[in-house]
Design a protein that fits this description.
There is one protein chain. The protein has about 325 residues and is an alpha/beta fold. It folds into 2 domains: about 1-170 and about 225-250, NAD(P)-binding Rossmann-like Domain (Rossmann fold, 3-Layer(aba) Sandwich), CATH 3.40.50; about 190-220 and about 255-329, UDP-galactose 4-epimerase, domain 1 (Alpha-Beta Complex), CATH 3.90.25. It contains 10 helices and 14 strands. The chain has helices at about 10-20, 55-65, 80-85, 85-105, 140-160, 190-200, 225-240, 260-270, 295-300, 310-320; strands at about 1-5, 25-30, 45-50, 70, 110-115, 160-170, 170, 205-210, 220, 225, 245-250, 255-260, 275-280, 290. Strands 3-2-1-4-5-6-11 form a 7-stranded parallel beta sheet, with helices on both faces. Helix 1 links the parallel strand 1 (about 1-5) and strand 2 (about 25-30). Helix 2 (about 55-65) packs parallel to helix 4. It is globular, with a radius of gyration of 19 Å.
């Protein structure tokens, strides 16, 4: 199948490009390289350097690529930044997606796999979180993703668009061989920040809040290996290719790990001391976010291959240790 990957030079997108190629699909990448890296793409993959906010350029690129399906990873995703710069998030994540969907209509493509988020659920009423949990985002990032999910539902009814929205919890890890991995500028995710501390690139890792109602007082999160995310996307693509109707799935390991557990695991994996500084809670950080992924397991047969935190951290460590300056090195 011809698949267009929007944001294919980013962290998850680059892993997805390789997974699609491995499954025998033809892949075109669309990315403005604002946060993505050309070096993350395998040789021979066509890159269309286009910004989603340039509607005519997006339409021209998608029509030329003539995809049979589109996967969409091109989103701004920093919660704090979304609070201080909401205009950027509604423009990129909502208007940009509308441009992409309009281009798909012009190209006659009606299969869409969307990178959604657990930020839809805000402060959860219960855990683990399944698809029946109320959607109540507490920041512009989560709200922008909610808007897109609503748009997709309306496009399904009006235009026959079939979509799968995958609501990620915490994507982590790297390709098991260490050839590609996570390189954000600036970095905001816990595991790479901890590993950069292990490498001596940071003096310490800050733990934001130690008085939560959890076993050790620090926030608990559900970490899912990036390759397991890609497997879920491949299954979603197969579902749509087989004529399946639209779906929304929560996607995580179903196991929560605290900030302290992540740091202790990284100490074991790296064999290095990782200094810690305790800080105040950050506004809007729920105590616990853990997914119930039983629906995608029962309906699409998805199961994580790398559910262990130590494996996720080890794969990330292989990447960071061999690429201490990321793709820039």
């Amino acid at each position: 199948m011809r698949v267009l990957v929007a944001g294919g030079a980013g962290y998850i997108g680059a892993h997805m490009v390789r997974a699609l190629l491995g499954a025998g699909h033809q892949v075109t990448c669309l990315d403005n390289l604002a946060t993505g890296h050309r070096a993350s793409l395998p040789d021979g993959v066509r890159l269309l350097e286009v910004d989603l906010l340039d509607g005519p350029a997006v339409t021209a690129a998608v029509v030329e690529a003539a995809p049979e399906a589109v996967m969409h990873f091109s989103a701004r995703s920093l919660v704090g930044e979304s609070v201080t710069e909401p205009a950027l998030y509604y423009a990129n994540n909502v208007t940009g997606t509308l441009h992409l969907l309009g281009a798909m209509r012009a190209a006659g493509c009606n299969r869409f796999v969307f990178s959604s988020t657990a930020a839809l659920f805000g402060n959860p009423e219960r855990t683990p979180i399944d698809e029946t949990h109320p959607v109540a985002p507490i920041n512009p990032y989560g709200a922008s993703k909610q808007m897109v999910e609503q748009i997709l539902a309306h496009f399904d009814v009006a235009y026959g668009l079939r979509y799968v929205a995958l609501r990620y919890f915490n994507a982590a890890g790297a390709a098991p061989g260490g050839e590609i991995g996570e390189d954000h500028r600036p970095e905001s995710h816990l595991i790479p920040l901890v590993l950069k501390t292990a490498l001596g690139q940071r003096e310490a890792i800050t733990v934001f809040g130690t008085d939560y109602a959890t076993a050790d007082g620090t926030c608990v999160r559900d970490y899912i290996h990036v390759d397991d995310l890609c497997t879920a996307h491949l299954l979603a693509l197969d579902h749509l290719a087989g004529g399946g109707d639209s779906r929304r799935y929560n996607l995580g390991n179903g196991a929560g790990f605290s900030v302290r557990e992540v740091i202790d695991t990284a100490r074991t994996v790296t064999g290095r001391e990782i200094p810690v500084v305790e800080g105040e809670r950050r506004p809007g950080d729920p105590a616990t976010l853990v997914a119930d992924s039983s629906r995608i397991t029962s309906e699409l047969g998805w199961r994580p291959c790398y559910p262990e935190l130590a494996t996720i951290v080890d794969h990330a460590w292989q990447w960071h240790r061999s690429h201490p300056e990321g793709y820039g090195g």
